[in-house]
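Re: the 213-residue chain
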Amino acid sequence: MGSTHCWIAEGQEPFSYATMFTLIKYGNTNTYLIHGASGNLLVDTDYAGTLQGFYRAIKSLDIKVGDITYILATHYHPDHMGLVSELMNLGVKLVIMNTQLDYVHYSDEIFSRMSQLGVKPIDESSARVVSISDSRAFLKELGIDGEIISTPSHSADSVTVMLDEGTAITGDLEPQSYIDAYTDNEALKADWEKVMSYHPHRICHAHANEVVL
C-alpha cells in the first residue's frame, strides 16, 4: 500500500503514514477525520455553537460535510459531542459504542441551560450501535484498519481509536506523563497499559499536543 498523508495543521507540510487522517482544529478540542477506502470517520467535535467555525475549518482543508460518513464521540462530554445532532441533521451517521449507550444524553441538561445554542438531544434511535468487540469489523467496512477500545479512566463511556499504522486517538485520556503525578490511579494506569499493548508510535490528544513515541 502506498504512503498517504496526515495533515496535522493547516499550512504545514504533510507527513507520510500508512493511514491518512486530518486534524480539524477550530476550537478547544482536537478533532480528527480518518480517511478510509470506503468511508470516513470523524472523531469528536467541539462544543455546541461552533458549527460555523467547523464549516470554515473543513473548507480550508478542502473537506465537505458530505465527505463524513460517520461521527464517533470519544465520550459524551459537551466539548466532544456538541455538534453531533447538527451533523446528523446534515446526513452524517452517528456510531455509538455499546459501552456509551447509557451516556449519550449526559450533556442534555448542560445544553438545556443554554437555550441560545438551540441544541437538540441526540436521537440515538437513528444511530448505529457497535460493540467494542466488533469495532475492527466496523472500521474495516470503511476501509480503516484498527480498533476502538474502551478506556474508561476519564469517564465510563470514553473510548480510544487505535489505528494499526500506530496512531492512538485518545480523546480526554490523561497523558501518560501524568501517571507519575498520582499516587493511586490504577484506572489510568490500566488504560495506558491497554493502549501501549498496541505499540503505538503516536498519541493524539484532544487537549494536548501530539506525542511521538
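The chain has a mean pLDDT of 90.
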